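Z., the sequence and structure:
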Amino acid sequence: MKPYRELTKEELVQLKTELEAKYKEAQAKDLHLDMSRGKPSADQLDLSMPRLDVLNSESDLKDSTGLDCRNYGVLDGLKDAKALLAGMTGVSPENVIVYGNASLNIMYDTVARAMIHGIMGHTPWCRLDKVKFLCPVPGYDRHFAITESFGIEMINIPMTVTGPDMDMVEELVQKDPAVKGIWRVPKYSNPQGITYSEETVRRFAALKPAAEDFRIFWDNAYCVHHLYDDKQDEIPEILSECVKAGNPDMVFEFCSTSKISFPGSGISCIATSENNLKDIKKQMTIQTIGHDKLNQLRHVRFFKDIDGIKAHMQKHAAILRPKFEAVLDILERELGGLEIGSWVRPNGGYFISFDALEGCAKAIVAKCKEAGVVMTGAGATYPYHNDPKDSNIRIAPSFPTPEDLAAAAELFVLCVKLVSVEKLMETK
């Protein structure tokens, strides 16, 4: 197909007329579709229904150590639950604290503790004149919401095909003591689906921060969320890499079963060094008597071990893979060669990242909404909801049915074409 930029003004006008007619037809269908959030579909949730039958009033509610999971005790999580989550990330169970239903809660609490109490004896961040976080973009909107809620200044770090721009990360971290953290989704990143290279991971581990209380917030949310059996991205284990580099305390790693079992009723963890664990537990003993051990036991009994999780995730992949491929095929068929957008074909995760022509993302999302398809808000993948190029759009293929997804994707590419033509006409 001929690139839109090569079309004459007359050709663009004619094309616009044709596209507007198709858009009116789409509006007449009265669609009510949603590609805004990365939620598991009903079919995926059904995979975990047997987990509800694992425990009942007749069950033995003691764990493998003999602990009565109905009662108080075990602040940092059941031994077998630690092993289960450690297996997902490749860390040692001794480095794990098991929490409740969502890693987002842990990330918020971790930032809050640093703000109020400081990290390992350092000045609480709330007493400092300035606190900064590095934010690789496009990135996860809820990360940015946490730091914004605490008044932390956020600095954009461009993503590359191998991870964040590490030259920029190293310069800022090593020169500015106000830089206290960086958000990261290292595997099948949200939203691009990029997995960090070995070099990128090792450069993170070897950082020499100006701030002794600088921490990498390593959100390994999609560590087992592969789409393919024969194309599975892997990364070096960050905690051990930090130990090798002489920075054992520099990482807080997070993961959960939110998109493995049921969102809202999963289990989650933080994995970090012994020193960090001691610091965290000092506050935890005041904050809680412990998290839901029955839910931890339910997960252990259902999945058993990491092999059980991997087998379960193959079932998830069988549902997700055709959805991703359907969207990607429509993008390629309808937009390939037009030079009005680009995207990454991920091997896992929950999203497809689309980059439109500069200045078009908000208009595309608005057009989709007017025709009955809700997308993630334009700008959401950037701090302060401000995409300086107004180009990135996150596509979430997981939740709709295959039929609804195809309809939504077809409308999306139509809106991309129409808005792109209008944008190009401004320069003709």
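The radius of gyration is 23 Å. The chain has two domains: 4-44+310-425, 62-304.

Let me know what you think.
H.
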